[in-house]
Amino acid sequence: QLVESGGGSVQAGGSLRLSCAASGYRYASYCMGWFRQAPGKEREGIAALYTAGDSTFYADSVKGRFTISQDKSKNTMWLQMNSLNPEDTAMYYCAAGPTMLCKQGNWYRINDYWGQGTQVTVS
Q1: Helix, strand, coil % in the chain, rounded to nearest 5
Q2: Which residues contact 113 (CB under 8 A, 6 or more apart)?
Q3: Whole-angstrom distance, CA of residue 30 vs CA of residue 101
Q4: Which position among 33, 93, 107, 116 has the lowest Cβ density within 10 Å, counted as fewest Cβ atoms?
Q5: Over the stretch 9-41, which tens digit does the pLDDT of each residue have?
């Protein structure tokens, strides 16, 4: 089970920190990522990490503004979002998939487990 939290409304230029708490599976061996979907747009992979290592991955659209991190002892992943702009408005989801997706650089194909999503609105 994946449970996101931390979404909300913020003004352009502001920051938010999303959390994804994982339970019910062996957190220490997955490729986990953050995705977002705005109304009328396709779902977009924005960041991912390999829970058993230090590798992180970012989409160009968020590189330099967003930071993905984790606390393995708490089975929790975060997404620190800075310099938000209205184009970042979307429902944000965390997801988990097999480690090979991270190792092969195909993290945007994570699709095994999904959270319920948390809304981020930037005005």
Answers
A1: 15, 45, 40
A2: 1, 2, 25, 95, 96, 97
A3: 9
A4: 116
A5: 999 999 999 999 998 777 678 999 999 999 999
Task: Show the CA angle centred on residue 12, arms to residues 4 and 41, nearest 5°.
Answer: 60
Matching residue, tokens 């396709």? 42
Tell me, what's the pLDDT at 27? 67
- Residue keyed to tokens 């449970």: 3
Rounded Cα–Cα distance for residues 91 and 19 (Å): 13
The whole-number pLDDT of residue 78 equals: 97
CA–CA distance, 51 with 89 (Å, rounded to integer): 27
pLDDT band at 53 (very low <50, low <70, confident <90, very high): confident
